[in-house]
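Hello again, I could really use a second opinion on something today. Take your time with it, there's no hurry, and the full record follows here:

___
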Amino acid sequence: MSTPDSKSSPKPPFFTASCSLLIGTIFMLVMITVAYLSWYNKDWQAFWEKQNRQPQQILEITPKYDLGKMLKDIKDHTTLVLAPGKYVGNFQVQNRKGIILKSQILESGEMAILETSNGIALEWTECTDCQIQRIQFQTSDPKTPALSFIQSSNVQLNAIKVIGPSLGLWIRLDSKKIELKDSVIQAGIKVQKCEDVMFHDNQIQGNSEDAAIFAEEVTYLELVNNKIQAGLGMILKKINAHTPKQPNLLAQNTIQSTKEALLIDTSSHFQLLQNTYTTKQGPALRIVNSHQIELGRPSQINKIETQEGTALFISQSSGIVIQEIWCRNQDAKQFAVVLQSCESIQLIRNRIIGYPEYLEDGRMNDLKGGGLSVQKTTDTVLVDNEIYDSQRSGISIQGKSQIILRRNQIHDNWGNGLTAQESQVQIEAGNKIIRNRGKGISMQDSEGQIIQSEITENQDNGIDLDNSSPTIQRNKITMNAGHGIALRQNSLPNLQQNEIIQNQGFGIWFGHPKRMEWRQNTFDRNGQGYSNDTTLPAPTQQPTQPENASASPLPNSGTTAKPEAKDTGENKATSASVSQPSSKPQPPSQPSSKPQPLPIDPVEAFDQIGKEPHK
């Protein structure tokens, strides 16, 4: 029987204070250890494996050994040191870990050669943590690669040489973390359905009609400082990054090809930095149906050049930033850069040029290629670009495109500085459209604005509008060989605060406008007067406009309608603006104070990347 005292006595606690303190201390130590491994040694799994790695067994063999049997029976964590010589056969390594295959080091630099006339010289299947160093692989079978990897991971290939008639190296089927470095591949490379493939400091020489590098369905691809020569350079399809913060990387590569140097197709998240793409038959660089690509950065300039075709062609793509490229072509029928059916494209600080040819006395004899074509492309922004020496227009905009221009230099092109058709064009502050052989700006069936820019010294009209009515405000429209502004069918621009000075024709030439609004414009020393229509109200300081200020319209321009002009009385004109018209435009009364560009050797100039822009 229990006594009353025993019933009321307290039970001992389940955990004592000392036990709780001990458990809390152990928990804190575990958390500190995890935090240490996570923060100071992020690859803690590799660290743990390194500490528990088995020692390597080293075997030295010569061509007298049966290498095929040794590779079939080889144990994990074994290093095979091959004496120089030929090892003939179809060799395989399957389901092994930690295998190292390398040549014996000799002063002569000779390598061990794994060779076959039929099939694959060496195939690795389901192998991990393997290395191949200073081994040569070669096959004469056009249907198979010399070296192949299937479902293998964490493989390092250093200073190897691969020779094949068409395909040298094939990496495929869920292989991961494959690194090729300091190697020579004298055949094509194919990479399919893999992750984390990296090529650094290699020489790759394709010797067939196939691409030197063909990669498809790869998650993260990195190519740095490779030299690639082939009939066809690289084709990259369905290449994506693990995360947008770690984009695929192509940097400091040199690609020389007969046909296309690089094609990026149906891919996303790329950085292309400081590469050189050169081809005889373009496009040198083509981007199709791809997104979020950064082409160039300050001091990491890409050079893109082709003899025939377009140098840079981008279609059906979005989120493309083109920065600090030097791009040119030599094709009489193609623009240097073409944007087609794209959206959200940015061009920043690029140089887009054609290929001029000079006579011995320094005069330009011929000009081919050059210029930018924008077709059916929306949300396009051009900032601080220099576009010159184009056989056609510096910029051609067509197909209901939308484009914004800021601080660009468009000069010395053989066509118009800028041509827009059925598009929306915002020419904002700081653009210089000068010394073009055609019109400075030509807009047909387009809308937008021309603000705070210089349109000067062009060999036709400064601004030519046909069925277009942009806002034209605070511009310097000077010293053009034609009219300052020419208005054709249904063009009703809003003119404000422009300096329309010293143009060879009229300050404003009217074709078929129905009305006109202008204010605070300055007209001075235009060769044929400030306007070709005598019904316009006289500007300030000019009470009447003489009848002889009305000249014939431009050829093929139709009859001259009487506009319903509205002059606020704030426009200014000097007496020089009502000089007698002439049948043909005459040179400006004063020569330009700006120096003309000196002829430059195009090859030499193209090699001098990063220097001051050509003026």
Observations:
- The chain has five helices and 57 strands.
- The radius of gyration is 35 Å.
